[in-house]
Design a protein that fits this description.
Protein name: Probable chemoreceptor glutamine deamidase CheD
CATH topology: 60s Ribosomal Protein L30, Chain: A
Catalytic activity: L-glutaminyl-[protein] + H2O = L-glutamyl-[protein] + NH4(+)
Pfam families: CheD
CATH architecture: 2-Layer Sandwich
Function: Probably deamidates glutamine residues to glutamate on methyl-accepting chemotaxis receptors (MCPs), playing an important role in chemotaxis.
InterPro entries: CheD-like_sf, Chemorcpt_Glu_NH3ase_CheD, Cytotoxic_necrot_fac-like_cat
Strand order of the largest sheet: 1-3-6-5-7-8
Strand content: 25-35%
Helix content: 10-25%
Distance between the termini: 58 Å
């Protein structure tokens, strides 16, 4: 997972893609991403005034790939550890979560699984979730202001659900002409 740390106000707007995270403490810093079925977790420490956002693709991966950062548990731990190394206290972290849309109707429910995973993870770790926007059928653009702990989203209007088309029935009959 790519880590982006903003400690100085040089580039105050950071975009993260799938499998990435960023943390910042600059007052004007903004971390952004665009989500479909993926989930982004925004964590912040209101006392240290530092926060970060991750963007993960799947709740879990195969056991042989436990190091991959686009899986939920790994993405969460990487973000939490980076925040702690930068002065946040785990017991003060608060969350806001976004994403988990159903982008491919009838094909997969990974968005729903991602949403359930992140809420379960936060509950298990004792981290309060102050806000959430999970599910639905549209992509989201999320902006997080880490020093303030504020987040906003905008639904992306030009996305459409891709319908799974029924597979034509294959016949075992053979016709010769």
């Amino acid at each position: 997972m790519t880590a982006i740390l903003q400690k100085q106000p040089c580039d105050l707007r950071t975009y993260i893609a799938q499998g990435e995270y960023a943390i910042a403490d600059a007052e004007d810093a903004v971390i952004t991403t665009v989500l479909g079925s993926c989930v982004a977790t925004c964590l912040w420490d209101p006392v240290a005034r530092i926060g970060g956002m991750n963007h993960f693709l799947l709740p879990e991966g195969p056991p042989s790939r436990s190091d991959v950062s686009s899986f939920g548990a790994n993405a969460m731990e990487l973000l939490i550890n980076a925040l702690i190394r930068s002065g946040a206290l785990r017991g003060r972290l608060r969350a806001k979560v976004f994403g988990g849309a159903e982008m491919y109707k009838g094909l997969t429910n990974v968005g729903n699984q991602n949403g359930r995973f992140v809420l379960s993870y936060l509950e298990r770790e004792g981290m309060p979730c102050d806000g959430q926007s999970l599910g639905g059928v549209q992509a989201r653009r999320v902006e997080f202001f880490p020093a303030q702990g504020k987040a906003r989203q905008k639904l992306v209007e030009d996305t459409h659900i891709v319908e799974k088309r029924p597979v034509p029935e294959i016949s075992s009959d053979l016709e010769l002409f």
